Amino acid sequence: MTSTTKASLSGLELLRAGAASIAQRPGIGQLLGMEVEALEEGLVSFAVTTQPAFANPLGDVHGGICATLLDSVMGCAVHTTLEAGVGYSTIEIKVNYTRTISVEGRRLTAIGKTIHTGRRTATAEGEVRDDEGRLVAHGTTTCLIHRSDPPSERT
C-alpha cells in the first residue's frame, strides 16, 4: 500500500486493510504474533499466545508483553476514530498488573476502548485477560492527535 493510499484512508479503514494482509502488519505485531480479534470504531481487540521467549528472569511472562498489548489496542482504538490523514502518538501509558502469567501457551486477549477523542488529544482504556477470562492487566493512555491545521488555526 502506498503512502498516498494510506493518507486517503480513515484510521479504521487503514487498520482493516492492514489486518487483511499479514505482510502489512506492523513489525511489533509480527514479532509477538498478534492476531486481530476485533476492529470497530472506538474498540479494538488483539490476542497473543505466550511462549518461552516472553519470559522475565523469574520465568513468567514479562510485563512488557502486556504493556505492549495495551499500548497497541488502546492506541489503535483511538486510531479507529480518526479521519483520513490524521495520525496519533502515545503521550503516556499507565499499566496495572493483577497476576503472573505462564509462558507455556496461554492465550492473552487485550481489548482497547476509546474514552474521548478530541481535536488534539484522546484517551483510551484497556484490559488484558487470559484464556480463563481472568484479568491479568489493565491500563489507560493519552494520545496526541497529529492534524494538519489550516494556518489560521495554528497557535
Automatic annotation (TrEMBL):
GO terms for molecular function: fatty acyl-CoA hydrolase activity. It holds the Pfam family 4HBT. The keyword Oxidoreductase does not apply. Residues 59-137 form the Thioesterase domain. CDD domains: PaaI_thioesterase. Signal peptide: none annotated. Belongs to the thioesterase PaaI family. NCBIfam families: unchar_dom_1. This is PaaI family thioesterase.
